[in-house]
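Deviation from plan, reported transparently: arginine complex.
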Amino acid sequence: MDNKAKTVQDFVSSFSYDQRLAVFDVIGSIAHVRMLVKSKIIPAGEGKKIIKGLNSILIDINKGKKLLKEEDVHYAVEKELIKRIGVLGGKMHTARSRNDQVALDIRMYIRNEIRVLIDILSDLEKSIAAQAAKNIKAVMPGYTHMQHAQPVLFSHHILSYAWMFERDKERLKDCLKRVNILPLGSAALAGTSFNIDRNYVARMLSFDGISLNSIDAVSDRDFIIEFISDLSIIATHLSRLSEELIIWSSSEFDFIKLPDAFTTGSSIMPQKRNPDVAELIRAKTGKVYGDLMAILTIMKALPLAYNRDMQEDKPILFNAFDTVMDCLNVMIPMVSGLEIKPGNMSEAAKKGFLCATELADFLVRKGMPFRTAHGIIKNLVNYCIKRNKDLIDLSANELKTFSKLFNNDVHSLLKPENTINLKKSIGGTSSSSVKNQISSLRKILKKI
Ligand code: ARG
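Because the crystal trials were delayed, the predicted structure below was used instead.
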C-alpha cells in the first residue's frame, strides 16, 4: 500500500476507539446468527459453527485479548471469525449492514453504561446522606446571591445535591426507554428482502421494542445526544458541589476540611493544601459540555440516512462517559471523607442578620402586614449596622422602640438554631424535617 492510501486508511478508521464495542458486537452477532438459523436463512449446522467461533472470540475478548486492527470493530470481529472458522464466517453478515450493526452496538453499550451510572450515583447519594446524618446538628448560614440569607442546617444544604443526583438517575432511566430499541434488521437503510424475525432478536438481546422505520433507525443518534445531555447535567451538579467544597475549604470560610488525599501541596508555599480534585472536577465539566456541543454539531443538518460523519459520535460519547465516571469515582470518597467544622459554621451563622426575616415574621404573626414589618426590620438592621451590633445584642427595650409588638419571646428567635427549628414545613430546614428528608431519601435508595 502506498503512503497516501495508508494515510487515508488511517483517517477513516475508527478501530482505535470503537474496539470498546467489541463485546456488544459479538453478542449482537450471536443473536443475529441464531435468528438467521431460526428463520432458515442459513442452515443450522453452519449457524452452530459460526456461533461457536463467535463464542470463542467473546471468551478471548473477555480475557483481555485484543482484536487485530481493521477499519473498524465490525470488520475486525468478522476477520477474526473467518480466521477461526474459514469463509463460512462471511455468512454472519447476511441480512444486515454495518449501519444497523453499529447502531445496535452503541445502544447496547449505552444501556450498559446507564446501569453503571445509576449505581454509582446511588453510591454518591448514600455518602451525602451519611454526611447529613452524621452532622445533623451543624448550623450554617444559608445563602442567596452568595450573601447571608437565613440560617440552615448543613445537612439540609448538602442533601440538596442528593436530590440533584436522584433526578439525574430519573433522567437516565427515561433516556433508557429510547435507547433500548432494537435497530438491527434495518440493514443499510431500506430493510432487507430476507425473511428475518426482528422481534426474536429483540427478545434475545433484551430490547423493549424494535424500530419501525429503517431509515430513521440507521440515521438516529438522538439517544446519544440525550445521553450526553444527561451526562452534562450530572457534570453540572458535580461542578456546583465542587465549587462549594472549594469555597468552604478556603481560609475565609473554613467550614470544612477536605480529606488530605484529595488535596495537594504547593511546590513553593509549604502551608498550602489545594483543593485540586474539586477544581479538576469543576474543569472537566467543560469538557463534557464540549462533547455535547460536538455531537449536536455533527448531527446538525445531516441528511438521511447513514453518513460517515456519524462515526465521530463514538470518541465523544466515550469521553463524556469516562470523564463523568472519573469525576464520580473521586467525588464519592471525597464527600465521605469531608470533615465538617460546626463551630466555624455556627459562628458565621451569627453574623449578617440572618434572623432578620424571623423578626419580620414575628410581627406578622402579631397581625402586622408583612410589608410594614419588612420596613421596620430594615430600620432595625440599619440601627445595628450604625452601632456595630448584631441583632442578638439588642436589649428588649431597644427592640420595643421599633415596635410595641416586640415582647420578651422575641429573643429566642435571634438564635439560629431556634429559627431553624421553626422551619418545620415539609422540605424545610428544621431538624425534624431534615431527618424526615434523610429517611425519605434512604427509602428511595433502598428500592434500587
Ligand atoms: N465504523 C462505522 C461507524 O462507526 C461503522 C458503520 C460504517 N458504515 C458505512 N456505511 N461505512 O459509523
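The longest strand covers residues 147-153. We consider this an acceptable substitute for the interim report.
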